[in-house]
Design goal:
two-stranded antiparallel ribbon
Length: 428
């Protein structure tokens, strides 16, 4: 029996191979659904496609994704096109209740009328209807009251569609449309404000795509920050990463692995190039940042058997076989840790979580081996994890802040909570 993530990948393979230049409205709808990664949130483990039920944690309690199949009693089968648009762009369901902004309507509002119609046609005509009732949230009363979301929308939501910038190229505009809209990159990569809103929704806001942290993972800076952003990445490297989940030095981790497996690998090279061009145009979140340079001191010390540096012993015992004593790893197999943008992030959450939980590479058409890094949380104490992460962040020329055992403990506790919630996630 295939696991649910494999099933999702299989479905994507079936519904979208390399798109041809001329496509029907239905084919376009399939492409848009995959670009929006709709299936990932609206399909529960072991559940029917698009029938909802996926448990998602929020700071005030868990919510469950909804049934978006064309079933008339439990799904969206009774939605008119206008009802559909109101839900997707404004976050308001057919019966008038407000949707939680975990559904990224703040990004989907930018979807064009033509694409919105193609999406509607696809869901109504091509998605099998599934009778499965939506599950109520676990948010306690009175926080579960929905009407305050209307106020949230007034303060934080702009329902205008994407506006073309005539000063930019058509390729740049295409990339901006995808990143800001269907791909909803800001949902993870933009920091959140006091109302748990994205601090910016496009390049005009200085916080846009400067990195965001959720449930123990830090989605990295996507601006031209030359230290821990995309400043040292080329357009070609970005396209390769979005297509395969890896580059010469790095590899996807956390939820980005799923995004690549179920979404970006199926986008055309032209669209991926447009996305890369747009991202490369974003001003650096830290204009005065300095590009890291490799330093031989750590490699020389380890070669001599000198493990006096904090975390060196833990690194040699647990990491060096794959990532090597020079921190360079093996190209497109085991990521380099030297000058790796994720390693150099101001927020070390992802690096800590990778050590605690392990990680796996994306499985794609162009990279069929989904290599796994084992988890070390079971064998390393909080202090040992802090030691090895600090060692990685301060070796081979890396210059990032040290990590404390308290930071590790906090993320270990989050990991335990997430695992319990995932085990409670019902199958349908």
């Amino acid at each position: 029996m295939l696991n649910w993530k494999t099933q999702l990948s299989t479905l994507c393979l079936l519904v979208l191979t390399e798109p041809c230049l001329a496509v029907s409205a239905t084919d376009l709808g399939q492409q848009l659904v995959i670009a929006g990664d709709c299936i990932a949130c609206h399909t529960a483990p072991g559940g029917k496609f698009f029938a909802g039920g996926l448990k998602m944690s929020t700071p005030i309690g868990a919510i469950y994704s909804t049934n978006i199949t064309p079933d008339k009693s439990t799904g969206i089968g009774d939605y008119t096109y206008d009802d559909f648009v109101k839900a997707v762009r404004k976050g308001v369901a057919k019966d008038g209740h407000n949707l939680y902004p975990a559904m990224p309507y703040t990004s989907f509002s930018k979807i064009s009328d033509a694409d919105m119609k193609a999406l509607y046609d696809y869901f109504m005509q091509k998605v099998p209807a599934v009778s499965q009732r939506n599950r109520s949230s676990d948010i306690p009363w009175p926080l579960s009251i929905r009407w305050p979301l209307a106020i949230w929308n007034l303060i934080y939501h702009d329902s205008k569609t994407f506006q073309i910038d005539p000063q930019q190229s058509s390729q740049w505009n295409r990339g901006a449309y995808l990143v800001q809209g269907l791909a909803h990159c800001g949902t993870c990569h933009t920091p959140r404000g006091i109302g748990f809103q994205e601090k910016a929704l496009d390049q005009y806001g200085p916080a846009y795509l400067t990195g965001g942290t959720l449930e123990g993972w830090h989605a990295p800076d996507l601006t031209s920050n030359i230290n821990n952003g995309l400043g040292r990445w080329s357009v070609a490297q970005l396209v390769e990463f979005l297509k395969t989940g890896r580059s010469e030095q790095s590899a996807a981790f956390g939820s980005m692995t799923d995004v690549i497996e179920h979404s970006t690998q199926y986008l055309t090279t032209q669209d991926l190039t447009s996305i890369a061009i747009y991202l490369k145009s974003l001003k650096s979140s830290s204009p005065n940042a300095i590009a890291p340079t490799y330093n031989e001191a750590t490699r020389i010390a380890l070669t001599k058997g000198d493990i006096s540096q904090r975390g060196a012993q833990e690194y040699m015992d647990n990491c060096s076989a794959c990532h090597r004593i020079d921190g360079q790893g093996y190209t497109k197999t085991f990521p380099s840790l030297a000058q790796n943008t994720a390693v150099l992030s101001d927020d070390p959450s992802s690096l800590i979580s990778v050590v605690l939980r392990g990680s796996k590479m994306a499985v794609t058409h162009d990279a069929v081996t989904g290599l796994r890094m084992p988890d070390f949380g079971w064998r390393l104490t909080d202090q040992q994890v802090a030691n090895v992460v600090t060692f990685i962040r301060q070796s081979w020329g890396n210059k990032a802040s040290p990590v404390t055992s308290e930071e590790v403990k906090k993320l270990r506790d989050i990991d335990s909570t997430v695992e319990r919630k995932q085990s409670d996630n019902p199958s349908h």
